Amino acid sequence: MNIGVIGSGNIGANAAKLFAAAGHRVVLSNSRGPETLEGLVEEIGPGVRTGTVGEAAEFGEVVMEAIPFGRYVELPAEKLSGKIFVTASNYYPGRDGEVDHGGLASSELVQKHLPGARVVKAFNTIYFERLRDNGRPDAPIEERETVFLAGDDEEAKRIVSGLIEEIGFAPVDTGTLAESRRQEPGSPVYNVPIKPEQARETLAGMG
Ligand SMILES: NC(=O)c1ccc[n+]([C@@H]2O[C@H](COP(=O)([O-])OP(=O)(O)OC[C@H]3O[C@@H](n4cnc5c(N)ncnc54)[C@H](OP(=O)(O)O)[C@@H]3O)[C@@H](O)[C@H]2O)c1
Questions:
Q1: At a CB cut-off of 8 Å and minimum separation 6, what does 178 contact?
Q2: Most distant CA atoms of the chain, gap in Å
């Protein structure tokens, strides 16, 4: 599959590496431009090349953002129309400034900004070192660490779940984009390394 990644930091670079290791083609981008990414892409190895944000957006059948949440308004809505779009960012007011959510979850704001995209919230609950180190593609799903996801488009969620499994984690669905609050900062499952059975039990306890 062709995958575009927007944001080349802790989460974006590690996700790009894992997707490429699973056999996908990846275009990795950041805010400063492709020339700033050449060393990183060389380090990551085959399967990943540099691009602008627009190129990553156009290239990917699946496009993932891992940028500070407050910057979501800069994502190129037209180029992302029709794409499965993974939002991994979390809202931290200290970093992102005051963002008026108007009662919506962060992923719903992203969806409003990208009306043509099929938004799935995923990879936002796992600390980057665990994403980098804990994938176990050979282990049974129930023995793996959970990566939570949420979204309104069932097919998009199935495809993102497949990617999560390919890189060695266990996908657990928290529900719709509105319900993605269940995997946001402050939730009992946020940044907690748990296997899927415990993840499902914790979610059930949240109602
Ligand atoms: N760190 C974690 O363990 C973790 C885990 C789960 C989720 N998250 C969330 O994931 C997001 C990324 O976290 P991170 O730790 O990976 O951040 P990071 O290491 O600071 O990297 C952020 C990346 O976003 C890029 N960027 C910023 N604004 C951009 C824009 N408008 N367009 C394109 N690229 C842009 C930056 O590009 P430049 O380098 O060119 O500035 C940088 O490559 C955050 O929202 C965070 O809350 C983080």
A1: 104, 105, 108
A2: 48
Strand bridging mode 146-151 / 118-122: antiparallel
- What are phi and psi for residue 141, nearest 5 degrees? -50, -45
The residues facing 80 across adjacent strands are: none
User: Per-residue confidence at 39, pLDDT binned at 50, 70, 90?
Assistant: very high
State in Å: Cα 207 to ligand 1 middle: 31
Residue with tokens 């794409």: 83
Report, as an integer, the average pLDDT of 136-141.
Answer: 98
**Strand 146-151, strand 170-175: pairing:** parallel
Band (pLDDT 50/70/90 cuts) for residue 207 is confident
Q: Could you tell me if the CB of 72 is within 6 A of ligand 1?
A: no
